[in-house]
Amino acid sequence: MDNAGYTTLTRQSGLMREMTVIANNIANAATTGYRQQGLIFSEFIQSTGDGPSLSMAAARVHNTSFQQGALTQTGGSLDFAIEGDGFFLIQTPDGERLTRAGSFATSAAGDLVTNDGYPVLDPGGAPIFIPPDATNLGLAADGTLSADGAPIGQLGVVEPVDPLGLTRAGGTMFVADAGTLPVEDPRVVQGFIESSNVDPIGQIARMIQVQRAYELGQTFLEREDDRIRTTTRTLIK
User: Fold this and answer.
1) Which element (helix H / strand E) includes 99?
2) Based on the structure, what is the number of domains in the chain?
3) Which of 15, 38, 155, 221 is such that its CA lies 20 to 30 A from the CA of 236?
4) Where is the signal peptide (predicted)?
5) Whether the predicted pLDDT of 89 surpasses 60
6) Which residues lie closer than 8 Å to 138 by C-beta, 6 or more apart?
7) What's the Cα-to-Cα distance from 90 to each of 7, 97, 102, 156, 207, rounded to whole Å?
8) pLDDT of residue 50
9) CA–CA distance, 52 with 226 (Å, rounded to integer)
């Protein structure tokens, strides 16, 4: 295979990865708190001496859009959404995680938990206990929870110390290896959840572009294969 073939193959490989990312975005377009992913292509150029340079493409770096998702009203007393910056702080068996998915419930022990059963933490990193007899649960904009007007806890709303170092931990959770800081002026609303920030129409349009680019590359490879076969047969005769 000549250099043009190798170059096309590297691009095809990246396009296949991007198609997987797009499909995952579309599949999670209705997932609460999901953040849209993208794929970054890089080009590596190598000199070949007197001949033309050789260009190879790679697509191994994922990026994430943290654009605000639409807020959907549910009326649930344990449904919360953050307006602006910040994440809810969650405790998992693998350590603390950050998420924008604010559809919570209470555990058998009375702790506020995610739908997966992970405790939701307060600003100090402690679980939030909801008394079983608590009625008229209210929420202040800073995340302070109250029952019948009496404060009972506060949602931890944090942001990563190193935003560029934030990595996915599957689904709607993220890991901040460099640690977190409390958001100075959080804005949390009750009775709402934040929808996925996936742009379905944009993702479908990109899917079509990727598919067409892949087909063009495939056509080129097939023609190159035919050319080489024809040349070989001619030389053998």
Assistant:
1) strand 95-99
2) 2
3) 221
4) none
5) yes
6) 145, 146, 147, 149, 190
7) 44, 5, 10, 9, 33
8) 75
9) 24
